[in-house]
Amino acid sequence: MSKRVLNFNFKRASVVVVVLLVTMAGCSRASRPTVKKIPANAEFSGFFKSYTNLKPVEGMDGALGYAATDAQKNLHKYIACVIDPVEVYLASNADDAKLTDTARSAATEYFRAALVKAVSSAYPVVDQAGPLVLRLRPALVGVDFGGEADTVNIGKVRVEMELVDSVTGEQIAALVDKQSLGGEADIGSGNPAQQEKWAAAREAFDGWAGRVRDFLNASNELSAEDADKADKAYQPYGESAVAAR
Amino acid sequence: MKKASLSAVVLVSANAMFAAAPLPAETFPAYADSDICARLMLGPITESRVSCSQSTVKDGANPVLIRLQNNLVLDVNKQKMIQKLVGQFLLATGEVKAKNGTMKLAEVSPIQAKDIPAGDPARKLMDARTYKSDAKLHEKIRHELAMMPYISEFDFISFSMMGSDVILSGWTVRDTNRSEAYNRVKDIEGVTSIVNNIDVLPLGINDNQIRAGARAQLQQSLSRYFWGSGSDIKIVVKNGDIILLGTVSTKADSDIAFIKCNSVRGAFHVFNLLRVNPGKAAEKLERSGSKTHV
Known about the structure:
The complex is a heterodimer of chains A (245) and B (294). Chain A is of the alpha/beta class and 245 residues long.
């Protein structure tokens, strides 16, 4: 009797395992990011819904930016952000079959971590979207392939990044950074001689992330009018405040 | 196998030793205050201060300790131990983490102010004369703090001065504001020491919903106090409680702000500390009451 039960359970367990494996395979396939490319002869990747508001950013060579000035919807009105996974747009003429998961994840995960590090002291990074929370959408645009098999070249990469309201999706700020920081950096090679190029790539990602922070700092600067209002409005509480007046 | 187990045991024991290494226990005179009054009314312990401490704790504010020697605000692990002693002086014993502003309490016993010896630095907090400051230095600090770029409607940073010693206090939603305020004040000529009592607020989704709800309510009725990057009214939200700070022109506006914030979904209490006409009514605590949300 017990042997029959054992056989029966074993069969059921096998069926469950097979179903689970099939489901997992389905899920992992679904989660694999699709490869996107810059449309031929296009100035921008198409990652943003609109590029019409972009203007050269003062003090940042090769950068086009936008920060909403609406009194109700601007960067000052948000206090935290969620950071999306980094998207990759290949160069128009790149062969998408060459993009390996290893190279893609090495680039995108490192860049995302660099963004978290650069942005979190200005906009603490949280897990959940919600009121007062921005969504930072980053993309590496113009990724190409190196001379060595399976390596990604970021020599001509630029960064497109936008901050949208995490509830409504409305664009609050955007930056297209065309500054070429990638140089000869290659990603994804196991060749020890390439380690230097990976170090160069990390430096480039840190540089772009730092420029995103610079852009946020510049956009958060108080206008002369607002600075005057803030100065007039601010009165500390406390005993010495009375004594000083 | 044996070797591996032995190594694991050694590692675990070593880890436990380091993790549990206690800080030396300290005993010092303290004042049991509320979180709100401690971070706003740093000054001598007067009747109004005691009244503020007791009433705000009764309305739900957290009890904290103030180390009298240097005005350091300490969040304690066992709030029940000091809950009934709020508004009193006491001798506290426990492990202090000054950098975090926390204390692991071991023992407390009430004392009288007269029990603290005359020359003891702990008496500083009780003497109103200690709080006199140079007006120019005060203005420099005020201006520097006013110009901080990442200050929103949900942050309020205050300060007190005891001569050239500065006590920073208040609340912020960004950790960076805590260090930025410290660094800005540190660089001002004439400042000799800084105690940083700025509390970094948690960014839970419930508190954020309350923040957004309160701002929307206030902008609707009192829009003239809001501008592009900030406002005259500050909305500090901590664990469901709203603390209204800043300055409004009339008592009616203060009352409207209180009523509007009371209708915010999810808020437990509203502490109205808005000032009306700063020249006349500064530092006057205008608590309009509290409410419990159902």
